[in-house]
Amino acid sequence: MSIITRRPYRGEIDLDAIANLINTCETVDQLEEGTSVTELQQSFDDPFIDKERDLCLWQDANDQLIGFGRLWIVPSDSAYYMNGKTHTTSPN
Angle, to 10 degrees, between the axis of helix 37-44 and the axis of helix 15-29? Predict the structure, then answer.
């Protein structure tokens, strides 16, 4: 059984790993959803994002990032959105 640990976003130190995960998934999914560290940084600087609450990462026993999730709460619409990525070679 694989050990997977959930943890909060730690700031700029995580941006490269998140961009790499998203872009690795993009090579398989081909949904035109690739990103860069700069794009992530701009996106995460949204004043409506509570980074501790809305961004979540999962890593394997080797501390490699294998999952990323983001919650969007849009107060003006009273709407909630969720998006996530998991590494293509991760079990289930």
Answer: 110
**pLDDT-derived band at 83, boundaries 50, 70, 90:** confident
CA 18 to chain centre: 6
How high is the pLDDT of residue 30? 67
Q: Where are the alpha helices (DSSP H) in the chain?
A: 15-29, 37-44, 51-54
What pTM does this model have? 0.81
Which contacts of 43-48 are long-range, i.e. CB under 8 A and separated by 24 or more positions? 44/9, 44/15, 48/72, 48/73, 48/74, 48/75
Handedness of CA 13, 6, 19, 40 (dihedral sign): negative
